[in-house]
Amino acid sequence: MNSIGKLVQVVGPVVDVEFPSGRLPAIYNALKIKLDGQNGSKEQTLTVEVASHLGDNTVRAISMGPTDGLRRGTPVEDTGAPITVPVGKAVLGRLMNVLGETKDPLPPIKTTETLPIHRQPPALVDQETKPHIFETGI
Questions:
Q1: pTM of the entire structure?
Q2: Phi, psi of 49, rounded to the nearest 5 degrees
């Protein structure tokens, strides 16, 4: 079960969130903050990533979007997992943000394969040592 915390401080893109005792999210976990729709806009969700544990059941997180309008006491949900993005041939040539959301006018990326943005690099024996063209999609 994912725990619910509350926002205690916002300083630019850095937010501090307090969680119940014994329910502290792991480093690199994604936290979701629901933003109220203002001026007729639809409700949005802000994703933040746990960067450190501060003590006193509080974590410090880095926002993946603007923090304008956040207020102390706002509920914050621990997703229990890190931020993941789509990977594979379907993402070649596509423009997306760090959350894996497309930022180009093309349709959404259709793939079921995703990987966390923080993970172990491949072992040296699994890496290619011969020069070759590295396709980036740029």
A1: 0.82
A2: -120, 130
